[in-house]
């Protein structure tokens, strides 16, 4: 996939095109930024650009056999490393670090892409560091991470850091409309994703809307009707009938709705809401609420989520949060 087909991070795109065209790419790069903004895909396209048969001004064609084989993970000179379980281990990096010392087998450049590089074990980090200390001219290591501070300082000092940012809401919305989303659904997904194209594509919007319906009824009972019985029943449903992951997902949706209420109480326009499609209902819920009441509920819900690590009773915790 050529750089020219990507959306967002235009500054990064132009930087890489210039470095490739001028043959100043170096031997170590850190691609850092939020999850889901395209860092890995940029790294893959960089590997294609360095080996493409028809590269133009630093941009790979994405169509030649070399580009296809790299995209399929079948090119001998482009290797990939990702966590094996919780960490990236020395056994995964030792062989690649050795290979990096030799000239490419079939292409112009050898590229090693390490995804979630912040999960390198210390021995694996030292293996990569040794390669970076004596970098082969035709080998490149790209470390992809959302937590660059977790990398060894000695690794960070030997790599050029390329910072990625979240996509704008309009960029995401335009992309989503282009893949057959309706404009209303695209707008909601773009706001929920908070600049992450990976998140936008992973969200099951129908599931989100089901959870939002349940959580909106809870907010009506809490702020509008002040119905203790309904709140206790909601706590039972959330805490007893849902599995832990589903419970967390429902609370996350509730937090999103509370964020919208908070914005309304601050006088923000309805158009700025994440859940703009139900702005009228949110405004009705916000009318009797106070900023202090919203903030207090958010704090209690955050404490519930923190308490999950202690295996607390979710039902009792939610009752305490909702009927305080």
Summarize the structure.
The protein is α/β, with parallel strands linked by helices. The protein is built from 15 helices and 5 strands. The radius of gyration is 24 Å and the shape is elongated.
Write out key terms for the chains shown.
alpha/beta, single chain, Zinc Finger, Delta Prime, domain 3
CATH architecture of the largest domain: 3-Layer(aba) Sandwich
CATH homology superfamily of the largest domain:
P-loop containing nucleotide triphosphate hydrolases
Count helical runs: 15
* Terminus-to-terminus distance: 54 Å
User: What's the total count of β strands?
Assistant: 5
Strand content: 5-15%
The description of the largest β-sheet is: 5 strands, parallel
Order of helices and strands: HEHHEHEHEHEHHHHHHHHH
Overall outline: elongated
Examine the coordinates and then state which fold CATH places here, giving the name of the CATH topology of the largest domain. Rossmann fold
Tally of domains:
3
Broad CATH class of the largest domain: Alpha Beta
- How would you describe the oligomerization state of the chains in this entry? single chain
Spatial strand sequence of the major β-sheet? 2-3-4-1-5
């Amino acid at each position: 996939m050529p750089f020219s087909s990507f959306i967002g991070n235009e500054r990064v795109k132009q930087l890489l095109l210039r470095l490739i065209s001028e043959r100043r790419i170096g031997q170590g790069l850190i691609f850092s930024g939020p999850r889901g903004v395209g860092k890995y895909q940029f790294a893959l396209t960089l590997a294609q650009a360095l080996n493409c048969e028809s590269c133009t001004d630093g941009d790979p064609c994405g169509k030649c056999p070399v580009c296809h084989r790299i995209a399929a993970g079948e090119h001998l000179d482009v290797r990939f490393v990702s966590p094996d379980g919780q960490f990236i281990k020395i056994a995964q990096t030792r062989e690649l670090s050795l290979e990096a010392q030799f000239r490419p087998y079939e292409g112009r450049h050898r590229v090693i892409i390490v995804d979630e590089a912040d999960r390198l074990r210390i021995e694996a980090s030292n293996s990569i560091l040794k390669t970076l200390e004596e970098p082969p001219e035709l080998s490149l290591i790209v470390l992809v991470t959302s937590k660059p501070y977790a990398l060894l300082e000695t690794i960070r000092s030997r790599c050029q850091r390329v910072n990625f940012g979240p996509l704008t809401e309009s960029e995401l919305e335009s992309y989503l409309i282009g893949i057959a989303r309706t404009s209303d659904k695209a707008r909601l997904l773009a706001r929920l994703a908070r600049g992450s194209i990976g998140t936008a594509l992973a969200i099951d919007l129908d599931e989100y809307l089901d959870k939002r319906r349940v959580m909106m009824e809870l907010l009506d009972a809490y702020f509008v009707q002040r119905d203790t019985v309904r709140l206790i029943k909601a706590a039972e449903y959330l805490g007893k009938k849902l599995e832990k992951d589903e419970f967390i997902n429902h609370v996350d949706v509730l937090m999103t709705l509370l964020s919208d209420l908070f914005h309304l109480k601050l006088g923000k326009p309805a158009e700025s809401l994440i859940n703009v499609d139900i702005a009228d209902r949110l405004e009705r819920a916000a009318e009797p609420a106070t900023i202090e009441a919203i903030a207090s509920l958010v704090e209690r819900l955050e404490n519930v989520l923190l308490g999950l690590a202690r295996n607390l009773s979710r039902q009792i915790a939610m009752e305490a949060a909702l009927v305080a």
